[in-house]
Amino acid sequence: MRNTAKITTAVLAAGALTLGLTACGSDKDSGASDTSGPLVVAASPTPHAEILTYVRDNLGKRAGLDLEVKEFTDYVTPNTATEDGSVGANFFQNQPYLDDFNKKNGTHIVPVVTVHLEPLGLYSHKVKSADALKSGATVAVPNDSVNEARALKLLDANGIITLKDGAGNEATPSDIVKNPKNLRFKELEAAQTPRSLDDVDAAVVNGNYAIEADLSPAQDALVLESAKDNPYGNFLAVKDGSETDPRVKKLAELLTSAEVRKFIEDTYDGSVIPSF
């Protein structure tokens, strides 16, 4: 039977509020504390849960790893669930996002091993190139601080806007010093950006959400992040102290195996790039 459990954001958010970040002492902690049971990993559906499902179905049994995959559709609950012990690990995020999340929420999540990069891209249903964007065009960007800054840095790197010197991982549209097309920015939850493409002139979309929306980053993006020296690789993460869990160590080995590299390259055709 398929172990993957799809969970809606609304239900998960309610659960997170009920449990809080300090929840303990219940059977929900079994995903993290019982190292003899299955390792429960929270993941975004694409490509993270797909990669984990490949590991579970093709590599886990012979490696002695019992793996359960839970799909989450937001970027918050996987970390709160890892913090409170509802799951033993998560796989969906990059270092700048995690640093920001830990700082703002008082969580203690740490990376274990980097697996892949999903290049961020600019997409449009209305123009065929970034140069074709008209003056005053509206561009949707993710509304969380790290991904918004990442989106603006993508536009800056491609000469569409210019950010002020020193604009880092908390850059916002107020940090734009040159905007020759007088672009307007619409801030949306990251998962909503591909759905906005019929309503805006262009949108900057995270790689996983682009793939879920049947966009091919390698082919459809007007501009795309470079993989070279990119700090946004996605990694397996756990609550601090769980790095020594033998199940976590085994999963880290499998996620960086030659078999997983081939699966990523064959399945995603350049839209997801191995980082190991």
UniProtKB/TrEMBL annotation:
Q: Which UniProt keywords apply?
A: Lipoprotein, Membrane, Palmitate, Signal
Presence of keyword Lipoprotein: yes
Pfam families per the record? Lipoprotein_9
Please list which residues make up the signal peptide.
1-23
Q: Where is the lipid attached (S-diacylglycerol cysteine)?
A: C24
Q: Cellular location of this protein?
A: Membrane
Highest taxon in the source lineage = Bacteria
Q: Which Gene3D superfamilies match?
A: Periplasmic binding protein-like II
Cellular component, GO annotation: membrane
Please verify whether the record's keywords include Membrane. Answer: yes
**How is the protein disposed in the membrane?**
Lipid-anchor
Q: Which family does it belong to?
A: Belongs to the nlpA lipoprotein family.
Name of the protein in question: Lipoprotein
Q: What is the lineage of its organism?
A: Bacteria, Bacillati, Actinomycetota, Actinomycetes, Kitasatosporales
